[in-house]
Amino acid sequence: MIEIPRLPLSDWIDDGLDALTDQFATATKVVSDVMETGIEGAVDGLMWLPPWLSILLFAALSWRLAGVKTAIGTLAGFLLLWNLGLWEPTLQTLVLVIIATLIAVLIGAPLGILAALSQTGYRIIFPILDFMQTMPAFVYLIPAIPFFGLGPVAAVFSTVIFAMPPAIRLTTLGIRQVPSDLVEAADAFGSTRWQKLRKVQLPLAIPTIMAGINQTIMLALSMVVIAAMIGAQGLGGEVWRAIQRNEAGMGFEAGLAVVILAMVLDRITQGITRDNRQTSG
Length: 281
Hints:
0% strand
């Protein structure tokens, strides 16, 4: 019987990760220190305000961006979280989600535009996205630790990688769905590629791009909770402590807080998308 030797894939990955860590350890340490200071500063800044005032400001922002119903839901939900003693973990989670979403969109939107405008870029990027979206979420925690150590920065890094694909996919989809007659009209008027993108394709693709941002936020929130395993604070940390202590009630409260935060963020992004559609219409 012929024995086929085992492919040392795990050894190759470990060696490659060790080499990258050794090569970029200094740079990632600087990035980690700067980001951690920024995250702590943002949380401290939000905690500096009295909780009741912060809640009123969030409700007013929800009213402005998504309407009265969302504002009432935000007010009631956040008051409940304050009452349950989960206000600080909620703010910690919110900061991590916002930072991770901003980074994911800043990276994902240009890649989505590239994939929309270049068939070669599409053929390279989309198989990678398929790989990223089928990889189990817990796997993304592993490479974050050697680069950034335990803590919120590693959580942001893994969250960005996990949550980025929808931003890329729906940016590409939105641009490719722009009616061809409008693109041809822009070409007929002598628009350059940049002018056509900026004045025709991107404005018409905004609703689809916003749907991608909405999905990115939801994935970021789910990943930030999972990232409590590598030292991320916030609501994920409360869930993780409840698991370790086998306290079902505490876990349910933290899980409810995640649901409330997800609903608020979802309704706000939907409100922004609705306003953009009305404006473009």
